[in-house]
């Protein structure tokens, strides 16, 4: 294994992270808030480690990235960015412990959105924009990883989206750079568009920028303790609903839209399935809330925003949906596992895997009825290879097993049943809020034991990196020659 190219890229990423810390530092310095010193120290430490790794592993020739190096780089990127991203929280006047700081940072960079801050308004503007920046950077990184790295690594059926540009492992670095450049421009343009729309809808400019960043990243960090409910605006909620859906669609289609290729977005089977699922869940919860005595307009408003927030894994809230009753809570718990489309900023099982699973079920039923018939599963009018079907089945099985194991570990750490179950679901699906009075929409994660927070940090990384990417490096065979 060639470690040098991996360290070189990790050093570059940490250097860029230290440069990003200058933004909240300048904001707190302009406000006269002493937290600018925390960002300055954090930027120096991060920059020192980043530049040291970058220069000590610099190579003049083009770097080759094999499969093992790609696995190591993907894990290292999220781990080190989460670790160094915690420095501003730890050094700030919030007086957070190491566990709380790392939890807040990893929750941000994995776009989970679970927070340990009890009164978010007490934090400086630099801290608030840093939380948003972590999610925004994590969002664009996830899109690049899902479109370039994971298909090459054949993780969880992602090889279904492998293109000729990434057929060879050695091509992933130069091609990923080109892809990242185009995606960054589109991602930035969408963020600015949503910032302008939120500002016109009545949200203060700073809040509009922070929420636009976390909306497109489907992260869910807000500048208010009451989340979007603090603004109590139908216009703002509608704009954010549109942003959450936009962040849940394949970003490759946005690149195509810049060249006039809008038909691909409409014809993508993932998009059709996703929109039908969203509409179905919203209708079910709306009907249930109306049956409980709520007015239909209020029911539709609350159901639409909160259901879409949970399905997309964003985690914003406008109501304590944990108190809506068993039926609505059960649907929302199941919705936590779904996620959006492949190549988006969302996590969860993803729509294409659900489609492949449905196709596999149809094939098995057809083979029972016609044992000698040739029956194939199709995706986007193309036969699904057996290797992809096996990979998706393996991913689904491992997803459920990982969820069960996380829930058991959280239960062993002292959490009650509702908190352990929903905590495991929200961590591995990168949703944000859980259920119950402790970590529900009206609560936060500050009261959890430190061991529970570290378990959830592992769960967030596990879910964000599509399970196999993390577990493969824990296998001793990975490190053998």
Topology of helices and strands:
Layout: H1 3-20, H2 22-31, H3 35-56, H4 67-84, H5 87-91, H6 98-109, H7 125-153, H8 172-200, H9 205-216, H10 234-247, H11 252-257, H12 263-267, H13 269-291, H14 296-311, H15 326-335, H16 351-369, E1 378-379, E2 382-383, H17 386-412, H18 417-428, H19 436-439, H20 450-464, H21 468-471, H22 476-479
Antiparallel strand pairs: 1-2
Molecular structure report:
The chain is mainly alpha-helical and 481 residues long. The protein folds into two domains: 3-241, no CATH class; 362-479, no CATH class. It is built from 22 helices and two strands. It has helices at residues 3-20, 22-31, 35-56, 67-84, 87-91, 98-109, 125-153, 172-200, 205-216, 234-247, 252-257, 263-267, 269-291, 296-311, 326-335, 351-369, 386-412, 417-428, 436-439, 450-464, 468-471, 476-479; strands spanning 378-379, 382-383. It has a two-stranded antiparallel ribbon with strand order 1-2. β1 and β2 form a beta hairpin. α13 packs antiparallel against α15 (326-335). The longest helix has 29 residues, at 125-153. It is globular, with a radius of gyration of 22 Å.
């Amino acid at each position: 294994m060639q470690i040098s190219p991996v360290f070189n890229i990790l050093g570059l990423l940490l250097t860029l992270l230290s440069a990003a810390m200058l933004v909240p530092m300048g904001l707190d310095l302009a406000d006269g808030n002493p937290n600018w010193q925390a960002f300055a120290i954090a930027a120096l430490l991060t920059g020192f480690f980043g530049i040291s790794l970058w220069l000590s592993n610099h190579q003049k020739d083009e770097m080759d990235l094999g499969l093992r190096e790609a696995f190591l780089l993907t894990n290292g990127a999220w781990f080190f960015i989460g670790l160094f991203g915690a420095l501003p929280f730890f050094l700030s006047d919030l007086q957070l412990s190491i566990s709380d700081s790392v939890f807040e940072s990893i929750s941000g960079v994995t776009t989970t959105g679970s927070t340990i801050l009890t009164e978010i308004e007490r934090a400086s503007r630099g801290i608030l924009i840093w939380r948003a920046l972590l999610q925004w950077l994590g969002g664009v990184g996830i899109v690049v990883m899902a479109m370039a790295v994971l298909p090459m690594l054949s993780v969880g059926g992602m090889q279904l989206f492998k293109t000729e540009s990434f057929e060879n492992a050695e091509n992933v670095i130069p091609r990923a750079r080109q892809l990242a450049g185009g995606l960054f421009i589109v991602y930035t343009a969408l963020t600015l568009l949503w910032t302008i729309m939120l500002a016109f809808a009545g949200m203060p400019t700073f809040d509009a920028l922070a929420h636009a960043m976390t909306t497109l990243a489907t992260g869910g960090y807000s500048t208010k303790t009451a989340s979007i409910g603090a603004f109590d605006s139908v216009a703002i909620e509608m704009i954010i609903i549109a942003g959450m859906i936009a962040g849940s669609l394949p970003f490759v289609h946005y690149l195509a839209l810049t060249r006039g290729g809008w038909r691909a977005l409409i014809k993508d089977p993932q998009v059709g399935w996703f929109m039908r699922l969203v509409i179905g869940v919203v209708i079910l919860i709306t009907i249930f809330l109306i049956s409980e005595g709520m007015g239909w307009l209020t029911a539709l408003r609350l159901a639409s925003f909160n259901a879409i927030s949970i399905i997309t894994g964003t985690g914003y809230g406008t109501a304590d949906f944990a108190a809506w009753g068993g039926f609505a809570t059960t649907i929302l718990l199941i919705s936590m596992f779904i996620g959006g489309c492949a190549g988006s900023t969302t996590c969860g099982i993803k729509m294409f895997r659900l489609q492949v699973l449905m196709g596999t079920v149809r094939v098995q039923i057809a083979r029972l009825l016609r044992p000698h018939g040739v029956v194939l599963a199709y995706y986007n009018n193309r036969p699904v290879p057996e290797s992809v079907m096996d990979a998706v089945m393996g991913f689904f099985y491992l997803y459920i097993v990982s969820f069960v194991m996380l829930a058991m570990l959280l239960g062993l750490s002292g959490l009650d049943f509702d908190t352990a179950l929903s905590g495991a679901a929200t961590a591995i699906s990168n949703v944000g809020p859980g259920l119950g009075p402790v970590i529900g929409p009206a609560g936060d994660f500050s009261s959890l034991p430190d061991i529970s927070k570290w378990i959830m940090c592992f769960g967030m990384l596990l879910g964000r990196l599509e399970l196999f990417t993390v577990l493969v490096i824990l296998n001793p065979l990975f490190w053998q020659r």
